[in-house]
Every structure is written in structure tokens, then in C-alpha cells.
Design goal:
four-stranded parallel sheet; 263 residues; single chain
Length: 263
Amino acid sequence: MLKCIKHLKKSTKIYPPYGSKSNKEIYKFVINPSPPDYLTNETIVIDQNILKNIEKVYNEIIDHLQKAGATVCDNYSQNVTIAVAESRSSYLYLQAFRDGKVVASYRWLTNTILRIKNISPLSTVIDYPYPKGGIPVDGAKLFHLSAYRDTERYFLTVIGVRCGLIYSPMLTQKVTFFICPTTAAVNYTMALNFDVEVVNHVWLEESFRNWVLHKTSRQHYIVKEQQYQQVGETQLSPSITTEKNRNESSASPPVADVVIADY
């Protein structure tokens, strides 16, 4: 069964989504054909819309899950323990949420297969289903990322857009938020001179988690010489599984996930 969250920080590595580009090469989604029994007693159902995206590796994924001890079913039932849902407004999510089941995102599925560990979807904001749309934001607010590469850059770009921001590949004076892990990041000094808001990625992750753009003045958002925490380590509160989800009702119109090919 799913492990408790408080011991998971070293196990929550995030991986590129299937089919993404990393260093201008198609990321190799390597599935272990002989996994250990890390999904014993789990019954998993996957949203039909997600299955369309993994059609080329569907048989490999199902074979891996079953060899890891899971039962994979075609339709939702009370026997399901984990529902892999497309978004927080999908029919599968609403069913599973109502019934108190574990709900996970497509990224949890691929991360889990590559981690070869059964970790709670609440252990990182990327493993839980996203709301549709983005945070309502007044006016156009641009954000620029510095010193993040590969999976980290992809992840932060996607949740930045989900936060209602506009990704800017270049640092200009029109940028509202300059996001970097340390003061050694490229263009850190230039961002200060441009008088833009300079924050670390924790600000972006917590804004996404709480569905509101936080004030950038909080102490743990300040960029320092040493990185505060690794990308993707922001956890969701277990209360999200017991209280009515408020994110969908306050979301702006749906936005497409951003594909970054030059990171």
C-alpha cells in the first residue's frame, strides 16, 4: 500500500513525461520489464483520455504494473485503490475523490514506474491531478527561469503557466518574476537591476499548490547562495483529499501544457 508522506523526500524524484524532449533528444522512457512487487494489493484504473497519450507504450506499462503486483482494471469500481485521473474536473477524479480513493495524475504513473516505488501522489505537486485552467491573474505577468534544466525546467514552466503566468524565454524589463535557485544563476544581477521580482521555485510550487500567487516577500522564497530545496519537493496537504476542492471553480479558461524543446 502507499507509504506515509513524511519519509519521502529522497524518493520523490521527478522524471520527464513520456515523449518529452531532453537536451534536444527524445527522452527514453525505459520501463523495467522485471520489477519487484512494489504495487502488491493495489487495484489501478487509468483515465481513458490518458490511455490515448500512452498508446505506444500501453502494453509495456500494463505489463510492468501487473508484474509489480497491481491489478489493472478497465472501469472504475469500489475495488479500485488508485485512480489515475486526467484532471480534477474529470469524471474519474470526481468519482474517486467522492469515494475517498487515492487519486493520482498521469505524471504519478510515469514517475512511479521509473522510481519503482509506490509513493503517495501527495508527496509532490506534480503527482496529483492538476486543475483545469490557470489561476486568475490581473493583466499579463511574465516569468523567466534561470539555472534550471531538463525535467526541472519543463515542470516549472508547466506549473508557471498553470499559475496564470506567461513564460518568457528571455529576461527583459517586461518580465514580472525572475525565478532561480541560487544567487549564482545567470542574469541574477541583471534581474535585480531591472527591478523585477526575484524568487526561488518554491514560490511557484506553493502558489500552484495553494492556487494563489503568494507575496514574494516570504523568507523561504528569497533567493540565497544555497538552494532552499530541490524542485518538485513541495508536498500537498492531506486535507485536499477530505475537503471540497475549490480550485476548479476559481480557474481561468483551460490552458495547454507548454512544450519546451530547447532546454
